Amino acid sequence: MLGRIVKRLGHRPWFAAAARRVVRLDRWLQRRSKGRIVPINAAGVNTLLLTTTGRKSGLPRSQPLLFVRDGEDFIVIGSNWGQAHHPAWTANLLADPRCSITWRSRELPATAELVRDGERARLLELLTASWPAYRTYQERAAGREIRIFRLRGI
């Protein structure tokens, strides 16, 4: 029930602003607990902690993200809550596709691939089935095509 309510609220502009603050807490708790404590999962969505290498700093950067599975792969989307700019983690993956995923208390090395063309439409359907507000975020994104990545385990 909580999941249905949160998914309905996900379309509201105020929700995105509030959720950005919750994501900071979620990231901190996931890092400290090595993925055992994931508050966002209480909303009925699946999340992972993606760690990329900062394209400018060269330092590890972690971001909790909603995901769907496509076979063995993890599919993530850089919606940035519908803001006009891409989230930094997507630029990090374009610069260096090597990353790691923390999921279910396990850290998995992975590589990222930007999804394009026909596969993009199919995976966007999977993502919006999990989090319907992605369609709203695309409308808000001021014409920017939201990036979708396939994360493959190494």
Automatic annotation (TrEMBL):
Gene Ontology molecular function: coenzyme F420 binding; oxidoreductase activity
Catalytic activity of the protein: oxidized coenzyme F420-(gamma-L-Glu)(n) + a quinol + H(+) = reduced coenzyme F420-(gamma-L-Glu)(n) + a quinone
Entry GO terms, CC: plasma membrane
Top-rank lineage group of the source organism: Bacteria
InterPro entries linked: F420H2_quin_Rdtase, Split_barrel_FMN-bd
Similarity annotation: Belongs to the F420H(2)-dependent quinone reductase family.
Database matches in PANTHER family: F420H(2)-DEPENDENT QUINONE REDUCTASE RV1261C
Protein name: Nitroreductase family deazaflavin-dependent oxidoreductase
Species assigned in the record: Dactylosporangium aurantiacum
